[in-house]
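Changelog-linked ticket: zinc ion example.
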Amino acid sequence: MKHCIRFVTATALAAAIFTPAFAAGPVKVAATLSTFADLARTVGGDHVDVSAVASPKFNPHFIEPKPSDVLRVKRAGLFIHAGLDLEVWRGPLVDAAGNPAVRPGGAGELDVSLGIPLLEVPAHNVTRAEGDIHLFGNPHYWLNPENARRMAETIAEKLATIDPEHAADYRKNFADFSARLDAKMAEWREKMKPYAGTELVGYHNEWPYLMEFLGLKIEYFLEPKPGIPPTPKQTQFLEKYIPEKHIKAIVQASYFPTRAAQALADRTGAKLVMLCQSVGENSEAGDYIGTIDYDVNALVQALQ
Ligand SMILES: [Zn+2]
């Protein structure tokens, strides 16, 4: 018993030394995106106080953080971000916050792309000079539920390091999420089975991970390159390509203007399908599972 008490005291002492900011109250978590915030809430439960910088109603690549966001990151014990070049606004935000713990390599910094098998990693160096904003591979990886599982585990393990007192809870919450995800993944795969191999057209190249999971594919986008708005040349190409390939749906997230995709849909007979890229993008996408549920149902409705 004595030994046990000594162990607990040592652990508490270590926590007090290494994590003074979190010793009292829940761990303050600032996530760049709502989806990461949702996963942090799922595995963190009552032990975390989570907020997101970017609203899911805006393009995650281009956000202008407010002074309140800077303060959020300044006070955070854990800062969760996408890594790669998804948040082109991340560096200036972290600089402005002046919180050494959340700087790259800091004790409270977490890049959730760790361990994710990335798609579309360029074989050679690409520069932003051509407008491309997916320079290190496609950064929209959370839409494959298998990746979301890995991200949730990465967050749970990081929280266990920051707040070792509640490590068992973080791991239990992750295991519960993983089990719920397993059941839903089987359901989603079953629903999409009849449409295996179906090709769609997208607005921005942010769907390859969802397509990979669902067994669908997208080869062409209204944006000629990620981050470059639709051009007349690209639209003309798609006007021929969509009917030729009997493509039934054009998919896009709610934060892009719908005019170009709607006009293309009208001219080709394809349907414009609004999908959620992030948790909270619409009222049905209340959490991660709700978001994928919404997308799967929207796709089934468009393709059946
Ligand atoms: Zn993108």
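Closing comment: Example verified and attached. The pocket of zinc ion is lined by residues 61, 133-134, 140, 204, 206, 226 (CB under 6 Å). The beta strands are 27-31, 48-52, 78-81, 109-111, 199-202, 217-221, 249-252, 271-274.
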